[in-house]
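agent: user wants the structure for Anhydro-N-acetylmuramic acid kinase from Methylobacterium gossipiicola. delegating to structure tool.
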Amino acid sequence: MTMMRAIGLMSGTSLDGVDVALIETDGEEVRVVRSPNGYLEPLGPTGYRGYTDEDRDLLRRALVDSEGVTAREDRPGCLPEAEAFVTAAHAEAVEGFLSDNGLTPADIDVIGFHGQTVVHRPDQRMSVQIGDGAALSRRLGIPVVSDLRHADVLAGGQGAPLVPVFHQALARASGFEGALGILNIGGVANATLIAANGEVIAFDTGPGNALIDDWMRERTGRPLDDGGRTAARGRPDEPLLAWLLIHPFFARRPPKSLDRNWFSHKLAGQLSTEDGAATLTAFTARAVARALDHAPEIPTRWIVAGGGARNGELVRLLNYHLRAEITTADAIGWSSAYLEAQAFAHLAVRSLKGLPITFPSTTGVREAMTGGVLARPDD
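agent: tool returned. relaying tokens verbatim.
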């Protein structure tokens, strides 16, 4: 199959900014370069357009206003303003990326545009990512595939996680053998479990960085717990953790997905800043460990990506609770920061070619199916 040059765009539940990544893929395999030590070199250039405090405030208000959404087309409150902003911010991110890398729109075959999730209610067959794919395509002059979750949710799937098919491609390219776990810790954490025979199961494990970030923002004004240093100085509240982990979500058999707003940092209540951070960090790690209750084969190796891979205290706790080899994505030539953006580039090419992007073992949809809506500049 012919390789295509695809850009993936991701703005996650952490609300930090727009990730941009370029890869070459045919929808099945990704083009990689292997370094002398056997690990992969970076798949392609990456870029980032950070959000300002004002931008994040708008998106947080949009999340609140989205509670009034009863149909996918609803845009109550500030959602129209937020959707226009998301589209423009992603356009600016791509324009800056192309300029920085000496590329033109003609060099890119397709863009995978995730948008910003404001509603995720698969039980109501609804998942809403704001952002106008058609407007983005017209502005950039590049075909755009967006709305990648809707078809799956409409067919009864969870609409998440979407990245496992890309995780599989990377694992094949890396030549990994044996049971492997790939953990992406964004605002919400999700795991892809690949058995030694190649079978895959994937699901959201629970909160990722979102609760920790919200706690730090409220208590200190800082957007995150840098390196997990605040949590490392605190002591987890064990009774609170025990209560949190009996939430029905953790006992539910996968596939399953989690809305960012199902849990709140305010659960840490009147704890000190350090103890609250320690408790919420431990919650993320122990929720991942609970995921092993559903693993058909316990991974002997885990690869950790996403913002959580930079949280040293969280990685330490994962080492303790998972009792397996833990490697960050960056350490093996993958990308901790841009893995999801790369995945959406891969998904866009699969969508163009009519290949499935969701599967019964990853989202719970009845049969493997493709998804996404294609917009071309002249549409």
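agent: one observation worth passing along. The chain has two domains: 4-159+341-375, 164-332.
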